[in-house]
Amino acid sequence: MALEHAILVSLLERPGSGYELARRFERSIGRFWTATHQQIYRVLKRMETDGWVTAEQIGQDGRPDKRRFSVAAPGEDALVEWLRAPVAPEAVRHELAVKIRGAAFTGDAGRAALLAEVRRYRAEHETLLTTYLNGEKRDFPDPMNLDAGQRLQHVVLRGGIAYERMLLDWLDDVLDTLRAL
């Protein structure tokens, strides 16, 4: 996936400025695709040059004007073309999994350090699961009455919830294994 596609999806959900896009990447999209502010602004400029997005100047009192971006027809066409392309299974890069394997060769000191890290990591993911569940209650209070777009957004969130639950189960298994050693 290219950053362009993630930006198109975000702008189709809601038009916004480069700053607003960067904030969305920090909060939600960033769980699937990360980008810095500089990358987002650079890609937006290229997408505007290519006709994929349009920008509207929005005046602001006491602050410089901002530019709100929206997806243009060529951008929608590019997104549809990308949606048609097959997706290959991603290689998983999981630093904690490598650390767990490494603990097999480090003795008690390494395992003790790993135990503390797994507990910290688990707490972060437990917080993230709570955030997802709260977002689900807030954004999808009546799942039976969603339009097609909302149903697709909800299924992505449910995937995130399922992933976090699976990860927490695995981390509990790792903790149980470490304690038993």
Automatic annotation (TrEMBL):
Entry keyword DNA-binding: yes
One function term, GO molecular function aspect: DNA binding
Gene3D superfamilies attached to this UniProt entry: 6.10.140.190, Winged helix-like DNA-binding domain superfamily/Winged helix DNA-binding domain (1.10.10.10)
Domain Transcription regulator PadR N-terminal positions: 7-79
Protein's UniProt keywords contain DNA-binding: yes
UniProt cross-references to Pfam families, sorted A to Z: PadR, Vir_act_alpha_C
Domain Transcription regulator PadR C-terminal: 92-178
UniProt keyword terms in alphabetical order: DNA-binding
The organism's place on the tree of life at top rank: Bacteria
Transmembrane regions listed in the UniProt entry: none
Name of the protein in question: DNA-binding transcriptional regulator, PadR family
